[in-house]
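user: Please review this fold.
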Amino acid sequence: MERATEDAATVESSVEALVAVLDRARLAHTPAIPPAQLRVLTIVAGNRHTNMSRLAEALDVVPSSASRLCDRLEATGLLRRVADPRDRREVRLLLTSASRRLLADLQERRRVALAEVLERMTPEARQELVHALQAFEAAATEFPESGLRTA
């Protein structure tokens, strides 16, 4: 168990470096979108049937907090709320073309930033990293509470 704990500390440190690279790519967008709002857009992008209660659950916040986030995104033209055609009492959340462009641009900037770091590694080290990350993802998706999709 001690070795696993040491490995976990190393992984944690590496993940912090990874998050820093991804965050720099996010902050390069002007104006920078706050992480909570970006999380909302990512959740809505991942499920076209997202409503306010599903969003609040995914964010692990109360519905009023989710609604305030949506208010801000709607005010900036990044999100639309529409009545669900199947149940008019439900409000569906939809991305706008601006938010889809923003997410695509962010994904591209993140990939470029990651590629810059990966280019500093040897091809062998990159391949080992990819295999290790795939194994980590497989191990993490064995647990439904991990929040990862088991597609």
About this structure: The two ends are 30 Å apart (CA to CA). Residues 9 and 15 are 10 Å apart (CA to CA).
